[in-house]
Structure formats: structure tokens, C-alpha cells
Amino acid sequence: MKLSWWEIKNWFTNVDYTIVGSGIVGLNAALRLRERFPNSKILVLEKGVLPQGASTKNAGFACFGSLSEIVDDLNNHTEQEVLDLIKQRWNGLQLLRKRLGDSTIDFKPYGGYEFFLKGDLAYENCLNKLPVINGILRPQFSGDVFAKAVNRFGFNGINEHLIFNPFEGQIDTGNMMQALLKEAATQNISILNSQTVSDYHESIDGVKVVVNDYSFRTKKLLFATNGFASKVTNQAVKPARAQVLITEPIPNLDIKGTFHMDGGYYYFRNYEDRILFGGGRNLNFEGETTTELAQTDQIQNHLEKLLKEVILPNQDVVIAHRWSGIMGVGAQKKPIVKQLSNNVYCGVRLGGMGVAIGSSIGTELADLV
Fold first, then answer.
1. C-alpha of 9 from chain center
2. Residue-wise pLDDT tens digits, 252-305
3. Which alpha helices (H) appear in the chain, and where do they start and end?
4. I need a labelling partner for 216 at 20 to 30 A (CA). Which of 15, 172, 180, 312 fits?
5. pTM of the model
């Protein structure tokens, strides 16, 4: 990278805060740093043309966990840990809506549903646990979160009851990220794309950052790379690819809301008069533990099969587009927001809940400095 004197002077000299990753966490961290340090020089580095992980590639679910996910979490975490996770996700959603505005992100409070294929052993267990979990969540939401609902959508081959959650909604992911990028620009935050951080070296007075074939100094370095954070977290974060498809417009589509099935491993929603459908990494956990943005026949064919046999039976459906994104997961669901050394920090492992917690994790990361 052959830089001019002007480029070095204006972008890479006297940098106070450098953030790696221009997704939800990175941009919220940058905006929070600007609030705290109005006169600081803030630089955001992004290796992709657009945010590379899941921020511009997610399904746009404004959710905090389906009933079956919460039941499963209670098997692996304490009740207080699960409640804290849900509070964090809920508060993060409110922060996102407050920062950008519901109309900007096209927030639609259609509610969310979970359903179970016939033969799914989790069905009865979830129905039995529903009152207990409502009791756990009632103080946070001042009412019941989950309730039984009838299958009015015409889904095929499922158990009798759906589980409805009135607190769930959906957003336009593209609108959200464009709004965050515009806000960062108005706050004099520099964002440079196609910049891969290959190494960094810390000293008493700051960090030397190696990017592409150039290096510069920054006082503080913050990693907001989520699914790409395996190296900086000592493998505490692993990448998890999520594959997605979206249909062509469907005449008279009578499906509105966000929908979960199979423990949250499959999820779909309407986007206007289309169905956006993703998931299936449980078909091949090993293969989907990757940072490669690609699709596989195994998962895409299964998504199509469920779409045409369960979600929209007896309808002609045409697939308009397919893509994938990279989430960050780990042995624990609690995000990692910590100081790694004197001048280096990270906010990662969002566990597929980036829309919900990205705003709050970015704020929390900036407040560590």
C-alpha cells in the first residue's frame, strides 16, 4: 500500500482509538467513544468492502431467544445466567431502536413464533416448561412472554400448537447498517475498508498495528470481529456459518412475523411479500465451523425442502438469492467483553444474537477504555 504524505497525515497519524471491524459492535463502540472523547481521533478498519461477518448478512430478527432455546439454556446455565442473557438482549434491542429509530430500521413488531415438526421430542417438554419460564421472565416483561397459538399459517407436518411471543419483531438489516455508517460519518469517525490487520505489537504508550503492507501507531486497539476473533481470544470464539435464502415475491403471502424451529437452528420471516429462510448448520457442525462465505448443496437443498414441504406446501416458490454470514459462538453464550492487555480490548462472541446485543456490547466495549 503506497501511501502519500497526506494519507499518512490525515488517516494514520495521532490515532487515539483503532477499532477492527465495522459491524454492529464496532460502529457502536466508535459512536460511544465519540460521546466519551469528543476530540479524539477514531479509526475503524474493515477487511471487507462491507462489514464481513454477520452484520450486513443476518436475517434481521429482533429477538432474544425462542422457548426451546431458553429451555436448553437452562440445562447448561443457571437461571440467573439465562435471565441476565435475556435482559442483555432485550436492553440491547431497546438501545438499537432508540439510537436509530424504528422507522429508520423498519422495525415491525409482528411478534415471533416457534413451531415443532411432528415427532420432535422437544414439543411436549417446551409446553410443560412454558409456565415456569413465563414465571422466570415475568418481572422483566411485566407479563407472560410465551403463549400457545393455533397454526393459522397453513404449515404442514407440525404439532398442534405454535408458541407465540408478542415481544419479538423484525428489522431491515441493510437499513440498520447504512444508518450506523452514516451516523459514524457525521461523527467524524474514519472508516477504511479492505484493510486486513495481520498483526499488532504492544508497547507502553500504545500499539503498532500492521495492516496490509503498512503499519501505524494507535493509543488503544479494540477488536470487534466476532466470528473472526478466534486468534485474539485463544480459541474461545469459533466461527459458525449461517446459510440463508430469500424467495421471489409470493402473491397473497399471509405470513407475517419471525419464526423458529428445531431449537432455533432454522428460522424464517417475511420480508415484505417474500420469505427469508436460514439455518441448518446442525446438519454439519464441523463443515459450518468456517469463515468461508459460501453455500453448500446439503444445507441449501434442505432449506428448500423444508420451505416447499412445511412452510409453503402446495405452492410454487422461486428462490431469488442465496448467501451466508459468519457468527461467533463458543462453549458459553455470554459475550466476551474484556481488556486483553494494557492497550488492547475485545467485544466478541455474540452467539447469533448480534442484532439484539450488538449495540450494548459495542457500548460496553467502549466503556472499558
1. 35
2. 999 999 999 999 999 999 999 999 999 999 999 999 999 999 999 999 999 999
3. 5-11, 24-36, 67-76, 79-100, 102-105, 122-141, 173-186, 285-288, 297-306, 354-368
4. 180
5. 0.96
